[in-house]
Each structure stands twice: as C-alpha cells, then as structure tokens.
UDP-glucose 6-dehydrogenase
Amino acid sequence: MRLTVIGTGYLGAVHAACMAEIGHDVLGVDVDAAKIADLSAGRPPFYEPGFEDLLARSLASGRLRFTTDLREAAAHGEVHFICVGTPQQAGSQAADLRYVDAVVDGLAPHLSAPCLVVGKSTVPVGTTVRLTSRIARLAPPGVRAEVAWNPEFLREGFAVDDTLRPDRIVTGVTSTEADETLRRVYAPMLAADTPYIRTDPNTAELVKVAANSFLATKISFINAMAEVCDAAEADVVTLADALGHDTRIGRQFLNAGLGFGGGCLPKDIRAFAARAQELGAGPAVAFLDQVDEINQRQRSRTVLLARRMLGGDLTDARVTVLGATFKPNSDDVRDSPALAVAAELHRQGAQVRVHDPEGAAKASLAHPELWCGEDLLTACQGAELVLHLTEWSHYREVDPDKLARVVRTPRLIDGRNALPHDEWRAAGWTVKALGRPAPSREERRSAAPAVEALRAVIASPATGPE
Ligand code: UDX
C-alpha cells in the first residue's frame, strides 16, 4: 500500500521504516529539511537500538523515501499517518495541537482522491471529531478524507521491536472501509495473532492517555512507598519484589527511584487532566496531580540527599552525575529527571559533571551550563559524590574498585536502585538510595541526618528543589 508518515521524530521515523519493512511503499515527511536530509542518507537523527540497520534496509529496498513537500505526500498516500509532536502548551497543562492542525491544513487542500488520515500522536479526546470537520472544510469539493485514530504505544529504546511486534493494535474508526484499510496496513501483525481492538475514535484516543496514566501512577505509587520506607526504615526494593509476585500487580514499572520523565508520561498525564477538566470530569482524574507531584518530589529528595551527604552545602562541591537521558538506550533528554537534578545541583553551587554514553551532545545543548561528556573516568575525576541517575547497563558493569581510585571521596547515591550495592560497599563506597535503609547500624547512624531531611521533604511537599 502507498503510505505517508508525516512527522519523522522518534515515533514517525521508526513507524515509517517499519511500514517499509513489512512491504509498504512509504513516504516520510517532515518540515525539518536537515532531518529529512539525514534520514534520506541513512543517518538516524536520534539514537534508537536497531533503527540504523532498519533504515538502511528500508532505503535500499526502494520502499522508503523522504520529503519536505506535503503536496507530494498528498499525491502519494492512500493512508496518511500523522506522527507529529503534541507537546505541553507554554503556560498551561494542556496539549499543544498546533503541529497536528498544521499537518491537516497543509495536506487537505492538495488531496485529489479519497484517502484515510490516521492519527498516531497522543491527543486530547475529541481530536478526531474536530479534525474530521477541519478536513471536510479544507479538502477540494468532492474529495472525501476520513479521519481515524490508531494510538502508538512504543517505548523508546525498544521502538523497532514494539512497532513490528506490538502488544495490541487499537483503531478508532467510523466506517468499515477505514477498518478494512487499517487491517490491510497491519496484515503481517494480524497474521501473527496480535490482538486487534476496533473501537470509536474517542475511545481509541482515551486508551493511549489511560495507558500512560496507569504507568505513571504505578511508578508514583512505588515512589510513594519509597518515601514511607524512608520514614519507617524499610526497604522499597524488597517491598516491590514481594508485591510483584502477585500476578494481579506484576513487578514491571515498580522500580522505585528518581521517577519518570521523557517526552510522553509527564506531559500526557497533565494534558489528560486538563482535558478531563474541560469535559467536566476533572475530579475523576484529580489523582493525576498527585502522581505528578510525587514524581517531581523524587527530584527534590535526591538533591536534598546529595546536599546532606556533602555536609549541608553544595558550594564548589565536585559532583558527578551518571546518566543524562530520561531512560537508558535512548539519547532523549526531554524532561530528563537526571538532567533536572544535575541542573539543580549546579544552581546550588556544585561543580557538576554529567556522563552519558549516548546523550551527552543533546544534554549539552539543553544545558550549556553543565559539563557533559562520554568518558566515564574523566567525568568522575576528583568527585566528592557520584549520583547514578539513569540506569544504563554500562554502569552496572563499572568496576567500583577502579572508580574509587579516581574519585576524591567514594560516595554514591543510586537514584535508580540498579547498581549492586554490596559490591560498591565492599569497594569502600558509602551508598545511599531513596527508600532503602543503610545495611549496618553504624551506617544507619551516619545516614540519620539525611533520612531526617528526606522526611522533611515529605512533610512539606510544596517546597520543590531546595
Ligand atoms: C512511555 C510508554 O511506556 C509508552 O507505551 C508510550 O508510547 C510512550 O511513553 P517511554 O516514554 O519511551 O514510553 O518510556 P518508559 O519505558 O515508559 O519509561 C518512562 C519513564 O518512567 C522513564 O523516565 C523511566 O526511567 C521511568 N520508570 C519506568 C521508572 O521510574 N520506574 C519504572 O519502574 C519504570
């Protein structure tokens, strides 16, 4: 089938290449000429495992091309996928739909044959209905373009696999023709028995924000338990393991630590709360404000813990942050909890060095005030405190003995509860993590001021990063 994929960010570029991989003739479209030049030359504009090979294969097959021209897209596509960003509006919690609207406005006047426009971006419920009348108004007389919604659930770091082997396909359609078209697009996945849920557009739009809200809630739930564990001298990791054995709960997304970030979860729960408010259903999802607040609080708690471990003052303290991206296996630094903590430590006077295996360049662009690099030993040279804030597998393989010889004081905060603490302690490191008691009475006594400080943050949640 002839498909266009409009918007070639993390979602669109991967979707376009995967659609070519399963045999479609795909045209990727973006307003960013530099990005289109990179993609056309087989250079991924972002780091995503497996994507570079897939892109090379798709380009070589002749089934994937890129353009900046929406007119060309209008002529090419039987199905047009909208994959542009829906960021948070400046000064509001709501989603900014200007890029989605711009695609429709740019595409509709050039359509010359019936087609299906399929949104994949995460949008407020009601968007399909709104875009349907917008297209009808802008398309040439007699040209019928139907709008459907087909949310994307891919995770960065697993984007290729999630797109080629999704857990489920959800389509919000208003006609049998649209349903049949989408079944043809996804025929190889359906042949592999992927669950296919056909519903109305409003429900399809809601499935996506509900899924992300649930995931965010699960993370904030375990981080709330970490706060209680700090108050009670209990261990949140053992707690999560024990909860996870209950198959109704499951262990996934119960990793306590610095909390969630990235281009999706934070802005999606805020946009959902804002949209529910508009619909008069605000109280039903008011808990999402708390989910957000608990999440932000883990950043303040980590900064506070760092300050206490350094004797109460960060001025000129040499601090190293391991990890800049919002999660491992991605170079995405959008709303990265690790970078937010690094920036706050810097603001409070610390000399901060940030290490990341893939995200250092993007981190430097976002935070020019921070030193960001890809060499671990240089980043850790002379450090008085190391904070492990993004759980790249790379860091689990670090030799704590070797690192102890490079730093000035072997002190570690494990903000992701992902390092082998016993090994680090055996190598002479003082280790502290949110929601975890110190293992010995002696260490507990020396950690007491830090634990007190963490209790204070829970007691006055509105304080924000100190
Ligand atoms: C998310 C959804 O998972 C995906 O389905 C949707 O399409 C887009 O948003 P993504 O943002 O790529 O995907 O990352 P995800 O793996 O969900 O992690 C989100 C954040 O939560 C990361 O910052 C991660 O570090 C954090 N997280 C995740 C935790 O803090 N604890 C956990 O247990 C799991």
User: Anything to note?
Assistant: Residues 298-463 form a domain with the Rossmann fold fold (CATH 3.40.50.720). The CA atoms of residues 86 and 97 lie 6 Å apart. The chain has three domains: 2-197, 208-291, 298-463. Residues 201-232 form the longest helix (32 residues).
